[in-house]
Specification:
mainly alpha; 14 helices; two-stranded antiparallel ribbon; single chain; 70% helix
Length: 312
Amino acid sequence: MSRKAATIALTALAPASWGSTYFVTTEFLPPDRPLFTGLMRALPAGLLLLGLTRKLPQGAWWWKSLVLGVLNIGAFFPLLFLAAYRLPGGVAAVVGSVGPLFVVGLAALFLGDKPTVKGLLTAIAAAFGVSLVVLKAGAALDAIGVAAGLLSALSMSAGTVFTKRWGRPEGVGALALTGWQLTAGGLFLLPIAFLVEGAPPALSGTNLAGYAYLAFGNTAISYFLWFRGIERLSASSVTLLGPLSPITAAVIGWAALGQALGPVQLLGMVIAFGATLLGQLAPRAAKKESFSTTEKNGQEVSMDLEVSGVRR
């Protein structure tokens, strides 16, 4: 297996893990506490990673970590849960699946990645496949829920693009950067959760087990793999792994909850998975030249330039 294929496979574990969130939330956690659940996912995981890495941000990385933490965690979680509570699950998943289209536009604006027909069609195909997997006939729409779903997708997409744009400071690993963002996002959620939902509920052993899984497996490890993938892959390639989340959720619902999977859902899985695979393929016409360069902050990084006749 090539290094790129291994990176894609490891990064794909993140959205696959996130696909288990619905099952864990409904079967293991107390009901109607979305903000508290978001807080319990983010803050313990972030503090654990801070303790393991023993590194704090320096200089501009204090505000960069705050921005990324809010975009990827602090704003994304409550908006996602608001959409999930006000919309049927299938509608919420379809609204969230427009994330790759947001990334195409934001990457063109902030990363200089020119949109391609293939990229746009792949993103549309992924969203269409997800809609076949999760959308039920007669699903109702709610304006606030749709707005929250779109804003959650935009928030995560912006976080993905800015994570790619800023990289990470010299001498700091992806694990520390993940800890900074999770801690910042969790601290952002802390007052909101208590103001909106009040004191924490009484927790059973089952609840604690569910929160432990969400915090450490579903969040600490998964977000580390996600941010590591953003660093090593293109923003569009990473975000097109997102459809693996609703696909995994559908499979878990079928295997663990007895939910039906008909021919339409299976066709949607094939389309969404095919779009995900297509999104990982580099353009054949482009030749790649690898070299090392030095960024302004002195960090040596390896870059790939796509050239077609003229060296840039």
